[in-house]
Amino acid sequence: MHCIRKITNDLVWVGANDRRMAMFEGVYSVPYGVSYNSYLLLDEKTVLFDTVDKAVTHRFLENVSEALKGRSLDYLVVQHMEPDHSFGIDELLRAHPDLVIVTNQKVLGMLEQFHDKDFSFKSKVVTEGDVLNTGRHQLTFLMAPMVHWPEVMITYDQTDKVLFSADAFGAFGALNGALFADEVDFERDYMDEARRYYANICGKYGVQVQSLLNKASALDIQIICPLHGFVWRKNLALFIDKYKLWSTYKPEVEGVMIAYASVYGNTENAAEILATMLRECGIQTMMYDVSVTPHSEIISECFKYSHLVFASTTYNMGIFVTMEALLHDLAAHNIQNRHIAFIENGSWAPTSGRLMREIMDKCKNMTMFENTVSVQSAVKDAQLDALRSLADAIAGSLNKTSHTQDIPQNAVATSEQNEISCLDANALRKLMYGLFVLSARDGAKDNACIVNTVMQVNAQPLTIAVSVNKDSYTHEMIHNTGLFNVSVLSESATFDIFQRFGFVSGKAVNKFKDEPNPPRAANGIVYLKDATTAMIGAKVIEGFDCGSHTMFYAQVTESLVLSDIPSATYAYYFEKIKPAVVQVQQHGYVCKICGYVYDGDHLPPDYICPICKHGACDFEMMHKL
User: Is residue 258 a contact partner of residue 271, using CB atoms and an 8 Å limit?
Assistant: First the structure.
């Protein structure tokens, strides 16, 4: 029985999924299956973009027949000749003998190689920039050689702004009923498989992928239709930005990937000690046993992390077999721009470190740490010192504080110093703060709060940091889900917004009860459209305990400019938005944030405002009238 889905009014997905395949191309494990995507355009002329693998051709033909609903198939666009996308051509020609194949000259040559017949009389050969008019649609053909075969081309539909991208922007994994990337949590559940697909299939050809990205940058692309994985119709920049990183061999994460080959556990022990030392320096680490973890996964992690450590026992006077295979495979995938360190082990003649270094020396723009840590059989005190020195060197290259550095004596104030020093909270208000509504969603519950500390941390990848009070309900939601939106408040914001989102708890009230259908970003979380200058959606990478607050470090997944009105600052709030306190015949202390009055002669130093939750430092004495 057919299984198809509409992408637009006249574009239909007619592909199929394979969950029984164990090894893609005989080398890459696909534990979550793989999709073979094919697309049918139902214009005045009907156009099919590529076919599928032998394993799913029967279902594919059912899908094409159902989508055509009795119409003939006029054109088959062949963008890529790998058999997993071209096996169904013979079957299509038997069903549609008048079918015309639209392709380039290199594809035509491979067609005849794979199928041992002349296709020239049934083909329309196109070159760079040629256009096919199918009625309402104008299809432009662009060559994309070595992404990842030499004959590859892509197709751009000028009418609906759709890019048929061949193997670019693909991912491992069956679609499981979803077709669009925005129907799943792509970053959480599929980004690793997308990176693994890119690194192993296209990773060698970064220059060629860059050429394709340059061509794509000149197009107004609203939808991306790849031959594997999900269709992209929202937040395309997220995936395109990843391709920019991967194709220029820039790491996504400043951290350390440690791959080790260990026979009796001693080399693993050295690697684990190093990982522990690095974590004590606040450095993110991941470890992989190269004899257990598929090499395609480790290569993917090498494309992700900035620093790589390879630890191997010496085996038959060389590198342990699985590590040697991994390193040759990694070098063949053209990895570049990384910091690399080595740990070797050997009971009588450790040589694996030198040999590993020789393999990786062939890669471009690699920074090798000078000293190889050498272990003889098992880690001893001398090797602990060498591992500690390596950890410190890695930490230094990441601008992290090494764990051997002493805390300066003047870093901690003595009680005597505290007694004579002055802490004026007003001094902190001289810092530049903005004002933001931070929103989150947990299950069916929406909530938001006011925060004043959001900043951009990095440009590639695009990351931000937000500081949130641990007592807030929004903090709890972000901690549970790892997702949030930031609405940047403008100078048009009124005090009502601050009362609504800053003075009451979302545990007690529904802050969105007066908005039955608030606007939502692609992550499903609400944001403020009025009185804001921009919206930024983000996914948490890591949270840092900062005492009363948590600082969430997050990657931007979506952003939108909403107005040109200047953004509100903390100072602007006090000067223009917050109502002036009307002094009456009353004594006590008034909260400078929300105006709450504490009635009493003495304000306890640990007092917390019951309205806005600010501390005693944000209260000032009221003068008697």
Answer: yes
In angstroms, rounded to a whole number, what is the distance separating the alpha carbons of residues 426 and 31? Answer: 57
Tell me whether strands 305-315 and 318-319 are parallel, antiparallel or unpaired: antiparallel
Q: For residues 226 and 266, state if they share a domain.
A: no
Write out the two tokens for 26: 């005989």
Task: Name the pairing type of β-strands 100-103 and 123-125.
Answer: parallel
Closest CA to 525 of 445, 426, 618: 445
Same domain for 126 and 77, yes or no, is: yes
Q: Are 212 and 144 in contact (CB under 8 A)?
A: yes
Tell me which amino acid residue 217 is: S
CA 558 to each of CA 48, 429, 546, 549: distance values in angstroms, whole numbers, following the listed order: 32, 30, 26, 25
Instruction: Give CA 381 to chain center in angstroms.
Output: 40
Query: Could you give the number of structural domains in the chain?
Result: 4
Q: Are 11 and 160 in contact (CB under 8 A)?
A: yes
pTM: 0.66
Please give the average per-residue pLDDT across 601-625, as a whole number. 74
* pLDDT at residue 276 is higher than 60: yes
The two beta strands, 5-8 and 11-13, are antiparallel
Contact status, residue 539 vs residue 463, Cβ threshold 8 Å:
no
- Cα separation, 165 vs 179, whole angstroms: 16
**211 and 66 assigned to the same domain:** yes
Pairing type for strands 436-442 and 483-489 reads antiparallel
- Residue 505 and residue 483: Cα distance in Å, rounded? 19
Q: What are phi and psi of 202, to 5 degrees?
A: -110, -5
Q: Which amino acid is at 413?
A: A
Confidence of residue 341 (pLDDT cuts 50, 70, 90): very high
pLDDT in tens, 534-549: 999 999 999 898 888 8
Phi-psi region of 588 (alpha: psi -120 to 50; beta: other; left: phi over 0): left
Pick the last residue of a domain from 184, 216, 243.
243
* Inter-CA distances, 240 with 66, 144, 169, 334, 615, Å: 33, 16, 8, 20, 45
Residue 516 CA to residue 450 CA, distance in Å, equals: 21
Identify the band that residue 407 occupies on the pLDDT scale cut at 50, 70 and 90: very low
Inside any domain, residue 584: yes
Contact 160, 137 (CB under 8 A): yes
How many other C-beta atoms lie within 10 A of the C-beta of residue 19? 13
Gap between the terminal Cα atoms of the chain: 84
Query: Which of 210, 243, 276 finishes a domain?
Result: 243
354 belongs to a structural domain: yes
Instruction: Flag whether 460 is in a domain.
Output: yes
Angle at 307 between CA 24 and CA 538, to 5 degrees: 75
Which pair of structure tokens corresponds to residue 64?
């094409």
Question: In whole angstroms, how far apart are CA 356 and each of 276, 278, 323?
Answer: 23, 22, 9
Both 321 and 464 in a single domain?
no
Q: Whole domain around residue 600: which residue ranges?
A: 580-622
Do the domain assignments include residue 420?
Answer: no
